[in-house]
Amino acid sequence: MKIACIDNMNHFMFVLARYFNDLGAETDLLLPGGEKTHFLPEADTVDINRWRGRIRPLGWGGMHRFFLTSPERIRQSVQGYDVILGTGFTPAYFARAGLKLDIYLTYVGDLVEGCFPTYESKHRLAPVRYLGKRLIAPYQRRGIQQSRVRLMGQPTPLVRDSYARLGCDYRALPFVYLYLDDFFADPDPATLNPEALARFEVIRREHDVVLLHHSRQLWKTQECHGEGVKDNHVLFQGFADYVKSARKKTALVCFEYGLDVDESKRLVEQLGLAAHVHWLPKVSRNTLKGMIRRADLVADQFRLGWMGAAGWEAVASGVPLMINFNEAMFRQAFGFGVPALMLARNREEITATLARFEADPEPFRQQAEEGKAWFDQRMGWGLAQRYLELAEEVLRSKSG
Known about the structure:
The chain has helices spanning 12-22, 48-51, 71-77, 90-96, 109-115, 126-146, 157-166, 180-183, 194-206, 232-243, 261-270, 285-294, 309-317, 327-334, 347-359, 362-378, 381-399, and strands at residues 2-6, 26-31, 55-57, 83-86, 103-105, 149-152, 171-172, 209-213, 250-256, 277-281, 297-299, 321-323, 342-343. By secondary structure, it is an alpha/beta fold. It has two domains: 2-176 and 381-399, Rossmann fold (3-Layer(aba) Sandwich), CATH 3.40.50; 192-376, 3-Layer(aba) Sandwich (Rossmann fold). The strands form two sheets. Strands 3-2-1-4-5-6-7 form a seven-stranded parallel sheet. Strands 10-9-8-11-12-13 form a six-stranded parallel sheet, with helices on both faces.
């Protein structure tokens, strides 16, 4: 069986392609081009040379090339594959080419915003972008509707509601977030951001407790149906209350990543947190993973009730994670629960949770170690095998 994985938002497809090849299925990662630097394959592997032969440029993808790409070119570029998995605007391109996508894996925004666009006022090309999304949306809707299998990797109401609006069924299967062989290997120093790492080490050295917050800064901007909003401001407010009585010198490390970085910096100043909050540039996962392991705890998001890559990276690393997480929603969607987390739903609970960690961090560290073992079993190789079995199922249905 020969498999194609198209696009690479959050590294989902590169992760799957590596697991599939290791599991014996010949798999290529097909990249549209124009990927953000931190979503390039080089940013998520310690040995890009091992995988170069399995990475191919597509020459089409995204909004700007949609009407410039002929249906014939799309069809030719995916010939020879038995099963094709796609994310992003892959369904729209397949609809344009008269093809059925075998497995559609949504990263949420491509489904919610791709099918039902809103006006993104903060985008520098907002009018053009909105018009482009409106023109492509009918193709995206049809491509998703015609896909043989549609997946929900995040148990969010936005995904369920969007599939319902399309009249589509779907299967619930968690994202495979991390290729563990790479995640726990030491990267080539030449691929890292030495300045960011040096600044982090100074922070680590000068503080008793380091709280890492590498989620996007997105809380003031209520666009895109609220998709991806993290409520970072709740963390800043709870942290501000905590440091007023903290007995240990504590740092909150954030990244210049997301639409609301400037708003977050202004809020930090207003809360009197300038001496406690440190800003680093956006970095790749290869650079970031070392910081995660050196942190005392990680904070993810405080609105959505579900966990993105930032949270799972902490769980996989065995680092305590503070988050607003709806465990019941996860269990209902996927049929199994998650390990114990540092649950905090609001400002007051963030303050109290940080105080408990300061007073006695060992129970939280023990929980995190148990979470690491759980991740290895549930979200690594075993989950990748379930995706491969799904691909085999789709191939049998096409053949029969």
